[in-house]
Design a protein that fits this description.
The complex is a heterotetramer, with two copies of chain A and two copies of chain C. Chain A is of the alpha/beta class. Chain A has an eight-stranded mixed β-sheet with strand order 2-1-5-10-11-12-13-14, with helices on both faces. Chain A has a single domain, classed as Glutaconate Coenzyme A-transferase (3-Layer(aba) Sandwich). Helix content of chain A is about 25%, strand content about 25%. Chain C folds into two domains: about 210 residues, Glutaconate Coenzyme A-transferase, CATH 3.40.1080; about 50 residues, no CATH class. The longest helix of chain C has 13 residues. Chain C is globular, with a radius of gyration of 18 Å. The chains are: A alpha/beta, C alpha/beta. At the B-D interface, helix 3, helix 4 and helix 5 of B face helix 4, helix 5 and helix 8 of D.
Chain lengths: ~260, ~260, ~270, ~270
Amino acid sequence: MTTQYTSAEMMTVTAARALENGSTCFVGIGLPSEAANLARLTHAPDVVLIYESGTLQTKPEVLPLSIGDGELCETALTTVSVPEMFRYWLQGGKVDVGFLGTAQIDRYCNLNTTLIGDYTAPKVRLPGGGGAPEIATNAGEIFITLKHSTRTFVDEVDFVTTLGFGRDGKGRDGVPNIGKGPTRVITDLCVMRPDPDTRELVVVSLHPGVSAAQVQEATGWEIRFAETLETTEAPSEKELSVLRELKDRTDRHHAGE
Amino acid sequence: MTTQYTSAEMMTVTAARALENGSTCFVGIGLPSEAANLARLTHAPDVVLIYESGTLQTKPEVLPLSIGDGELCETALTTVSVPEMFRYWLQGGKVDVGFLGTAQIDRYCNLNTTLIGDYTAPKVRLPGGGGAPEIATNAGEIFITLKHSTRTFVDEVDFVTTLGFGRDGKGRDGVPNIGKGPTRVITDLCVMRPDPDTRELVVVSLHPGVSAAQVQEATGWEIRFAETLETTEAPSEKELSVLRELKDRTDRHHAGE
Amino acid sequence: MAEFLNLHDAVARYVDDGATVAMEGFTHLIPFAAGHEIIRQGKRDLTLIRMTPDLIYDQLIGAGCVRKLIFSWGGNPGVGSLHRLRDAVEKDYPNHVEILEHSHAAMACAYEAGASGLPLAVLRGYVGSDLPKVNDQIKFIECPFTGEKLAAVPSIRPDVSVVHAQKADRKGNVLVEGIIGVQKEAVLAARHSIVTVEEIVDDLGATPNACVIPGWAVSTVAVAEKGAYPSYAHGYYPRNNRFYKEWDAIARDRGAFNEWLEKNVLTAGGDA
Amino acid sequence: MAEFLNLHDAVARYVDDGATVAMEGFTHLIPFAAGHEIIRQGKRDLTLIRMTPDLIYDQLIGAGCVRKLIFSWGGNPGVGSLHRLRDAVEKDYPNHVEILEHSHAAMACAYEAGASGLPLAVLRGYVGSDLPKVNDQIKFIECPFTGEKLAAVPSIRPDVSVVHAQKADRKGNVLVEGIIGVQKEAVLAARHSIVTVEEIVDDLGATPNACVIPGWAVSTVAVAEKGAYPSYAHGYYPRNNRFYKEWDAIARDRGAFNEWLEKNVLTAGGDA
């Protein structure tokens, strides 16, 4: 019997699975936070979650609405200052995986969270870089998760807020003391990895029921597919029930004040 | 009736008086620590004492033997890391007065705590700079206290561990963001201040019963005397009793383990 | 020692028109009461610094207090945009607001450098980002030992920093607990500082290495009960997440915002 | 997660001949037990880093473990010289020890920079001092914003750092309390780290902003009761000031030192 699930759930479960037990993850708010906590509540009980608010090794019962919710501090091993977080823990090389979302991404995994349009006369002003520019370069590797659409997967990002592999795919070449960069991108349709040589994103796995054409349609450039394209494993009963309980708890918690 | 006192007590009492109530003092171990705590226990109850071990606003009951005695932490408002102490509190400009001792001093208040003789083949190896080099330049002003002798007051220090006013008296001229430097030197014989123009040390006050000849004899260069030479006020009963009780408490405390 | 003033007098004394003001609190302990007092006193032409502008700066910008914003992430956390900020940047309403943007790492380091009395912060940052193209305050230096190219940004040295904390004792020593953000750095980096607190107590009850800011490192302490509301104060009250969500609709519309401001800040006296 | 080893195995695994080793603890929590274990295992050619060498390095130097010392204040606090250090530097006994000396501010910043993953530390330091003349690792850079000349020193990145702390929990998370010195920075700056603790507990009982080093940032935790003795452990035992005074006579004489070493370290098993 197959359990019903949404494409959003498929995305979160797949993103969660990417996190290895015992690894140290610097967690972005939103989708990454959901995936990272699902990982912690399923296959990766000893994953270490770090939020930029200074909360080290936190185990929130409910998903935080903001990066600095009280829940994160109350369930953390300890809470350090924000300068210490960025200096000792991120730049100091203690983070295995940075888990990011984004508003726009291009074929070389460059991320834009700054604006749509021209910098001096933006069509849409987005929140800005936040922690991402240095998470992307100072963490061991980067996972990115976001919804797949031609609005998000664009031929050229309007602004490189955060380095993937640069406009030409060579942005990390020869740069000392830099992380591996994005190693996988997980959407509601598929999983992509950068080509080891060109760094261009390649679809390596389609979620069950998703066609290559659907992915192409939702992507703003002619996207490459791996020769042997896998099918992502569907969410298990366990993964779904844990995720749904987590989201229910979260909704109930944030519904009050 | 005049109370008997030693020249060491005269020195400590005079050094203590230099500290204003409410000022913030970065305290060196030994004589400065004794004077600073005497000040706190007499005319300056709100003087803020800071030790380089990270103890902020500490009020030790007994004098510490080391710069990091437990007593300093237990009686402190809070204790910060040593990097924070040097970065935020000293370099950050929060210290009004640095209170230092030294092994050698010259006419321009340059201090040597590194060695006697040549650097590569020292006659006597001293402990080194410790906190002094940056206390002397990053605190608002500097008080120095030490015993007067031709071994300590030398024509040329063997090594400038810590800047007074440089070998020529001009070492602070034109340097941005630097403190006023030494403003008084207090010994068991007298009080000296740097000449406002040349920065050369000038004896401004002789302790009771001390002659100018005695000071000259204990100084390794031809020392200048102010035109109107004052006599330092003798220690009061109160100052002496507080100092002696402090030293008695200290001796009893450190006599055990 | 910190002087105890009421919030009105603290703001009147230390926040001048045209001043550079940092109001910090990383999601936690955001000094809303002080922000409202600045709005009520009609301060103008402020340069505001803050890592995460949040609703507090949306309100100050919407009220017309702000000329320039230095920040690294400007949004309503978990909800969406700051519409008053966008309206000012995109449509010059109520006035044009100039922006200068950094990354979090750079701003955190710049506060740290400011507290450390240094003119610059050095970090391994901005690699491959377009931010240095639009922010001329981001430069690069070469390490004299390794030759590595590292980013440098000016340290943050505000005219006045404003933070909220749980409590102060009667000497003005302040205890900050929980998510401490860059509050201590903001206070130490500034020429003057205003700390609002939930309460004044006889004894802070702090552990040996707690985050305590000594009273002599603070200009003034003002009591502001629920002074961080609708953000939260660890140990006192939770975040009003609902208000953060409701803010989206209020701030989206100029009329709704002005009405909200009139009712909840301008005519609300010192208690809002 | 930190591995739990006994002190012998921890030292055997992580302290190699020729390694660069930082053993920290600012008067408080000096890792004497680990130092003695290094002596017993006959480690050689170590480059030792420590702000205040203290008796622990006097012992390591006297025992012939050391080739080079990087430090900023080398004395017996409140007592006088470190005679084994002086004998090595001045008379090459038991072997020549090269020294590289800094100021405290520079070393503290260098640890901070090491923990921060940077190659250099920048500070307003060494102005007018002769130390840059005898230490070629002190350079000066120019601030690209203000033109101010600032000192730069290489960050400290030891092969292994050794510190002592009050307690660890069963996951190897470590609580350090009281005078915390540069212990956390030393651990985070190093490739490997050994933390000795007074005891292992179920719950650290730490307040929200306590100085806790997570187990995954530590290589190994080893129990060493009274492991900081004759220095002290806040909450456990006081400093043995008498021993610090007695050390002066012991260390002054080569024979007395060797006798002390034989009796109290070499033949004392893992308990000294």
